[in-house]
Design goal:
Distance between the termini: 21 Å
Number of strands: 7
Order of helices and strands: HEHEHHEHEEEHEH
Mean pLDDT: 96
Radius of gyration: 15 Å
Strand order of the largest sheet: 3-2-1-6-4-7-5
Structural class: alpha/beta
Helix content: 25-40%
Largest sheet: 7 strands, parallel
Number of helices: 7
Shape: globular
Length: 170
C-alpha cells in the first residue's frame, strides 16, 4: 500500500493546516484527531489547556502511532496558540456555530495560504476569547435535532475539506 515510514512522513510535503484542540478532554478524541491528521499529512496538532499529551496509552489506543508521526506542541491556552499562529501568518478559523460563520460547503481555502482550525471542548466548544481572536469561523451545517458533533468527527470533516480543496484536486 506504499505507506510512508515515520521518517518519510516527517520529510513529506504537508497540508498547510494546523489543528488546534482547545480543552479537548477525551484522550480517545485526541488520538483520533492525530490519526486523521496523519492520514491527510496535516502540518501539526497543537494541544491546549486540559488536553493530555503523548505519550499516553489512551491517546495511543486511537492514534495507533500517529502521535509519533504528526508534529505536536502543547500550549497553556488556545489563545496563546492562536496569537502565535497569527504572528506567523496563519489564518485562524474556529469551528463554531456563531453569527456570520462561513458554512463549510461555501468555504474555499486559498492555495498558498497557511491555515489553522480550532476545535473546542466536547461540551463547551471553543472558548469565546479564542472565537473573538480568530480570523473567522467555519460551521458544519447540521440537519438533525442535535447542534453539535463529536470533536473527532468534526475534525475529520474539516480536515477532509482542506485536503480535498488543496491536495486531492491538484
Amino acid at each position: 500500500m506504499k505507506r510512508l515510514t515515520v521518517e518519510e512522513y516527517r520529510e513529506a510535503e504537508k497540508l498547510p493546516l494546523i489543528v488546534v484542540l482547545d480543552d479537548v478532554r477525551s484522550m480517545y478524541n485526541i488520538g483520533s484527531v492525530f490519526r486523521t491528521c496523519d492520514a491527510f499529512r496535516v502540518e501539526a496538532v497543537f494541544l491546549c489547556g486540559i488536553c493530555q499529551t503523548p505519550p499516553s496509552t489512551e491517546i495511543h489506543k486511537t492514534a495507533l502511532g500517529a502521535e509519533e508521526s504528526v508534529f505536536w506542541r502543547y500550549y497553556n491556552t488556545a489563545l496563546e496558540a492562536v496569537e502565535e499562529l497569527q504572528n506567523f501568518g496563519y489564518t485562524v478559523l474556529s469551528v463554531e456555530q456563531v453569527e456570520h460563520s462561513t458554512k463549510l460547503q461555501t468555504f474555499v481555502p486559498q492555495r498558498g495560504q497557511k491555515y489553522a482550525v480550532v476545535l473546542g471542548n466536547e461540551v463547551k466548544g471553543v472558548h469565546q476569547e479564542v472565537v473573538d481572536a480568530s480570523d473567522g469561523c467555519l460551521e458544519i451545517p447540521q440537519l438533525g435535532t442535535k447542534h453539535s458533533m463529536n470533536v473527532s468527527v468534526t475534525a475529520g470533516i474539516i480536515i477532509y475539506k482542506f485536503a480535498e480543496e488543496l491536495i486531492l484536486r491538484k
